[in-house]
Write a structure and sequence with these properties.
Blueprint: E1 2-4, E2 9-13, E3 16-23, E4 36-55, E5 63-83, E6 101-112, E7 117-126, E8 146-154
Antiparallel strand pairs: 1-2, 2-4, 3-4, 4-5, 5-6, 6-7, 7-8
Amino acid sequence: MEAVLTERAALSVEILYSQRGSQSELVRGTDLFPFQIKTNYNAVPIQYNYKDWLVEEDGEAPYHKVSIAGGITYSRLITATIEDGTPSSPFTNLADFFAQDDISLNIGAAFFAGPHVGFSFRWTRSIVLLFERGDSNLNANSMRSKFLTFNVMYLL
């Protein structure tokens, strides 16, 4: 949903399902096991969008070819799992201590190939820690989410 502020500026709200994760690398010559963190979120980004490069073609609705955006996102954790390949590892229970709510900042850009088709990327960094070191008795570092998102869009 988008609220037009001016010809080039708008506020937008989205409702997204987001899968996020992380994976360690196996380090040769150590006892460290590789692990994977998998999370699923419902996310609601609110963004300010600035559009440029107006294209007016015969027979087509006018559209802006480039858009940059920035804003804030609220996300709610649906599920979280940690897999490390070792039976009864204490780290698989670490997901029980993940924060249920996430607030993050994001910036991004979009390129539109036509009035209906676009491609975008977005960089997101959480303000809230995903895992706070003091929340459990495990010897684990605090974690903060940061990730890139790539989208292909079709607009009606």
